[in-house]
Write the structure tokens for this entry.
Amino acid sequence: MKRVDRRLVAAIAFSGLIMALWLVLMGIVVWSTLNGAERAAVQEVLAGRVALVFAGWALGLALVAGMLHKLHQHYVDAPRRLLEEARVVLAARTPQLLVPRGTREMQALATAVNELAAQRDGLRADMAEQVAQASVHVQQEKDRLAALMAELQQSVVVCNQAGLILLYNQRARQAFRLLSQGPQQADGAELIGIGRSIFAALERQVLAHAFERIHQAVARGDTRPTAQFVTTVAGGQLLRVQVAPVRALQDVPAGVPAAVTGFVLMLDNVTASVAEEAERDQLLHGLTEGSRASLANIQTAVDMLGYADIEAPMRERFLGVVREEVATLGRRVTDLAQRSAQRLKTRWPLEEMRGADVLAAAQRQLGAHCGCPVTLDGVDDALWLKVDSYTLLQALTYLGTRLVDEFEVRFLQLRLARAGAHAQLDLVWVGQAMSNETVMSWELEAMRFGAERTPLTVRDVVERHGGEMWFERERARHQAMFRFLLPLSSVPGEEDPALAASAVASDSRPEYYDFDLFQSREEDSDLEDRPLAELTYTVFDTETTGLNPMGGDAIIQLGAARIVNGKLLRQESFEQLVDPGRSIPAESIPIHGIQQHMVDGQPRIGAVLPVFYAFAQDTVLVAHNAAFDMRFLQLQEEATGIVFRQPVLDTLLLSAVVHPNQESHRLEAIAERLNVTVQGRHTALGDALVTAEIWLRLIPLLAQQGIFTLRQAREAAQKTYYARLKY
Amino acid sequence: MTQKILIADDEANIVVSLEYLLQREGYIVSIARNGQEALDAIEREAPDLVLLDVMMPIKTGFEVCASVRANPATAHTRILMLTAKGRDTDLAKGMALGADGYMTKPFATRELVARVAEMLAQERP
């Protein structure tokens, strides 16, 4: 397995050459002293013994080679290994010593290095002690915060500007566990975790829209900028999300709004209450509009019966109408009572927003999507609307894009005015008339944006607001418009002065926490060129029925853990037994300890891979002997449609890069070399955790060799000898 | 000259009463049971006034109203919308689409008769 040193081969070849030359030279010297008869005699003697001379030379050479090999081991190999081990000591974070070996001088050198290391460890321990003392205070504050978060009955998630989760509480984890559709072992960890994107759990556009609104409010100088929305998540559940900004308060001049560095999200599962509310709405609706028609029929018929001169057959007919309608009303009441037990179509709660803000947002979004100028005209600043701004903007944008695309409208205008108890929002353009059929089809077709389709129609949006929408022309001004009637907020958006004052007072930073992670990470640079120490990893391992993926062996356990910001997150792990759909060979059971009955009733790989895929999303995969594990995953690509496209790093190859002169790169050997404590070996999660610890120790060792980025690590791994192994 | 009224409503139980009522008042009454029938009848018979229900099959009263106004041959027809939808947004939409009047169900027949007479007395613009 180990490479033979070329220098050793060269030295042996050189010695053989010298010996041969020496032999020839000696022969020439002796030959020159001989007379003719002696030369003939010698020639005769040697003629039959050339092989003997060659054998003598070869024997001599073998002896010399043996000696050289011994010397090489002693004076070259040993120092080299010592060098590699010294580098480990150099990079080690915990005290570690060299084993003295080789010549006496080398042993002395090792001892000296050990003394230096001891000195360094001493200094480091001192420093750590001081840092520890200094950070006790900080830790206490963090503990207090953690306790507070744990006690909260509400789910709280804190993320930075880019949506990366910095902190979440137990409640949030529980909430997402309920939403998680995967096997319970993933425990919601594929949705929520430190360093994960919140957009994996909540719809990106809706959340980004809320973030945008907070930015607007902050820029406007709002003292209490918050946004609230309700969104559907996996499993059809409805979550109410309240968003508040986290603001940087250091070095901010007075009077300037502090920059937003992140967001606090408070989550409530409102599925039940919204369903209830929608049902009440529906009942009310049924009782009013539904019954009105019947009442009208009865009343009109009764009015007719009031005529004295009515003929008998007509009288009978009107009485029939009354009887029939009374029966209809009775049926309706019974039906409503029954339906009240069923779940009805949900309606999203609306939120209060300043009308001018809605229009400003609509202007921006229309401008961005339609590519034509959008102006505002006659916007009543005093109006507050009660709207679901996300879907309303979708509807305006959808209509705007169709106008531009299909009617070649060159510019759009938005207007907002009060119209009785409602607000009247107009999308105005100059151009040709539009047929009634076109208006109807735009209103009733599912809205689409490019290739993206929504399940909603403009009519749905209007109905959600309890409003109306129609097409109208103003002939005098050659203008056409879509007019929306929208509900006004019942409470005008005036701030309670006391509340505003308290908001100002609490503007000083809370004292019990401090997150450095709020600095957005450098996300734009190419993943390949980002430093290894900064990347997020999913370290995983599989247990299988055997070693031959092509020969029908299959995965029986999958384990994984995450590394974020150079820290191994043991609590955010993934472990899942898998039913391989075949029997587990008896000879493999001692290796992984998984018996047939343990996998019976477990999910098949087709159900586990999607969850693992979500768990590993946007991370670099790390495994020991990754080619083996990846082969098993790749074989499932066709059946599951799940392809792991992210970069893969192999600790076996990278260990060989760091320590080319070590005999073994088995997991145990590397763990021992790098001082990693091995626990729970040969369970998938146990091995994944060991691999993760090894990887964390390999990163600084790679840096010593000038390997800093993912690209460099991958290139170095490919060059190593072991890269030629294929499964 | 006797004036013609079209009742467009899919509720047979109100049509029977309205038909009887308006005939008693001396109008010539015809009936349409959905939006499309209403449009056809308006073109064919050119009624002086249409009692137009909003919630009708095939085409809603709003659609019928917009189409009638869009067609120069029928644009002058007087339209009184009748609906069980009681929200003021519906009223606003009906008026915006060109209805001349709007009554919410249920209504007193006396009021309806008065409203019809008033509308028919007005000169068409």
